[in-house]
Amino acid sequence: MTVFVYDKTFEGLLTAVFDAYSRRSFPDLLLAEGEPFPLFYDEAVTICTDDAKADRVWKGLQKKLSATALSVITVTWLSELPEVDVLLFRYIRKAIDAPRTIELNFGDPDVLEVSKIWKKVTNERLRVIQFLRFQKAADGTFFAAVKPIYNVLPLTLPHLKDRFADQCWLLYDLKREYGYYYDLKETTEVRFEEKEAHLLSGLLSEELMDADEKLFQQMWKTYFKSIAIKERLNPKLHRQHLPVRFWKYMPEKL
Amino acid sequence: MDEKVLDKLKVLAESAKYDVSCASSGTSRKNQSGGIGSAAGWGICHSFAEDGRCISLLKIMLTNYCMFDCAYCINRRSNDIPRATLTVTELVNLTIEFYRRNYIEGLFLSSGVVRNADYTMERLVRVVKDLRTVYRFNGYIHLKSIPGASQELVNEAGLYADRMSVNIEIPNEKSLQLLAPEKDFQSVFQPMRYIQQGVLQSAEERKRFRHAPRFVPAGQSTQMIVGATPDSDKDILYLSSALYRRPTMKRVYYSGFIPVNEYDNRLPALKQPPLVRENRLYQADWLLRFYQFKVDEIVNDAYPDLDLDVDPKLGWALRHPEQFPVDINKADYEMLLRVPGIGVKSAKLIVVSRRYSRLGTEQLKKIGVVMKKAQYFITCHELPVRTINEVSPEAVRQILTRKAGRKKTDDRQLILQFREES
Fold first, then answer.
1. Does B38 touch chain A (CB under 8 A)?
2. Which of A56, A180, B39, B76 has the most CB within a 10 Å radius?
3. What CA–CA distances, in Å, run from B118 to A200, B62, B75, B407?
């Protein structure tokens, strides 16, 4: 069994692909630095992430796969699932070895699995876009907190930047403890050393709120209640479409 | 903005909720500089009401005063309900502020008819015009056209709205006249025709001038009430399919009848809205739009109503065992679509994947085919399975409609079918 140890970055993964081909030995297991090794292994290789090598692998992939398939790879990487690196390694290897593109061969278990994870991540992105709720703070900034399963914040930015172009906003990931701030021109990644209450709970306290914020939340709640048709109540369908994990941050469900 | 608007919002949302349409799809619009919002071509649902319906647009009426007296409508003149009217500024502010908080994708605006059709339509047009030109709102706008409104007003509204709709409500002119004495088919189809003319004309102009204004880019939709009149599913679906043949009709919605005016004895007294029938109609509608079915294959004189126990596609397959089994590795896309258990997505995946290698049941399962249904209708390169022709359509029907939870019978056991005497 061959074990590769790398730094769990995407460039690191691509470097691992490069090194594997140059060594002509392919890993059965990819580990992060410091992770415990399996009981038995033949060889352990430490990969030093090298942007030049990663770049060459990516350029090579561009010749083998369409732009869509490349974005599938990066999006799948953002799932941050524990086994996703091994899966992507196999996918990339198959793509490089095959004489023609493999991206549509859904009979292949790896291709199908990658496309399924991709679907899950893009679905999560859509849910964040659907269910994030901005609260207006007293200084005019709109604040929203989410706790997505996958690391999808970067994927939502183009949409949000286009849509909320004329307001400052801060979108914060409570799970990964980082966010993006938009200052009417561009978005910057932000991390906070000290966590104020709203960075932990996801909700602005009343002192921090804009004067009208409470009223609009009230209005939205009222609207949400009155738009439902009592004769057709269907709580199961409701939960299916609007997963409970989002309720904590949505004024209509508070 | 104050408490008064809150009360109005409550009243007017209650009045608007029986409109089914809430789609925000069909238009893609980038944010224009200095403006707010965008429209994402596929539509986004921002919340879901407790009845499971999506909330994409702020669905609201400008006023719920109405001079019409339609028997099926909550806002009819003779009903004693709270009435309210929003001012243009109030409505515009509400829309923008909700939009900024990512509550909604845009506005769905309708209105009761006050004074006359044109007066009402004019006020609706003012709202959408203000939103687009003064507030530079780029979000989605769905505007109900008032039956009987003039062509000039429809033409102006179409420049600002993404989608327009006129509701047919009752699929049969005689019943419509009985239930809604102020309406006839003419007053519904005329505005539809205006919208269609506007769209076609603008498409023609945009061929010559790239920046000619778009007119109702997301097309039009309509709605029919199901179960308020004795019309059969055949009547409803024939009308829908005729509407879909028109170039701009994007969606026909079906709304299970909810007796909001129980005292009116022109209407049937239902305990429950006909939800299953509504669901089957939507399934049939999907077959028309995405599965390349002809309407007379789904309902015809021999089968005027949809089967409530099985979905219309399975119903068709059971009536046509001679078309099956379908060879997954050879059949063309159109035929794959007709296999119960295979949807548009799986059919497309099958078509692209089988170029690489032949597909077996394991792979089909992973692709997402519902093998529980599909197994009776397909063959792949594996050992022959028991298809509909060996098992008989009646038995397949019985197996597939068997209620979950009952004790499972062994599939390998021979089952003798006895016809039930009635």
1. yes
2. B39
3. 53, 14, 19, 63
Q: Mutate which of B15, B32, B51 to test chain A, going by most A C-beta atoms within 10 A?
A: B51
For residue A235, say if its preceding peptide bond is cis, omega within 30 degrees of 0. Answer: no
Reading the block at residue B338, the tokens are: 């007709």
Shortest distance, CA A130 to any CA of chain B (angstroms): 5
Residue corresponding to tokens 């059969």: B232
Residue B384, CA distances (Å) to A67, B367, B377, B411 in order: 41, 21, 11, 16
Pair of tokens at residue B215: 């007119």
Name the token pair of B296: 């007379």
Do the domain assignments include residue B147?
Answer: yes
Number of domains within chain B:
2
Do A166 and A184 form a contact (C-beta atoms < 8 A)? Answer: yes
User: Is residue B283 domain-resident?
Assistant: no
Does B202 lie in the same domain as B61?
A: yes
Query: Would the CB atoms of A134 and B101 count as touching at under 8 Å?
Result: yes
d(CA B354, CA B364): 11
pLDDT tens digit string along B218-235? 999 999 999 888 889 999
Kindly tell me if the per-residue pLDDT of B279 is higher than 90: yes
CA distance B117 to B120: 5
Determine the average pLDDT of the residues in B377-393.
Answer: 82
Choose the final residue of a domain: B220, B255, B288: B220
* Prior bond of B325 cis (ω within 30°): yes
Phi, psi (deg, nearest 5) at residue B268:
-70, 150
The predicted complex's ipTM stands at: 0.91
Regarding whether B197 and B318 lie in a shared domain, the answer is no
| Pairing between β-strand B326-327 and β-strand B378-379 as defined by DSSP bridges | parallel
Q: Is B210 exposed, middle or buried (0-12, 13-18, 19+ CB in 10 A)?
A: exposed
Domain ranges, residue B381: 312-401
| Tokens describing residue B378 | 């397909």
Instruction: Return the closest-CA partner of residue B339 out of B254, B301, B273, B396.
Output: B396
Q: Is B257 among the domain residues?
A: no
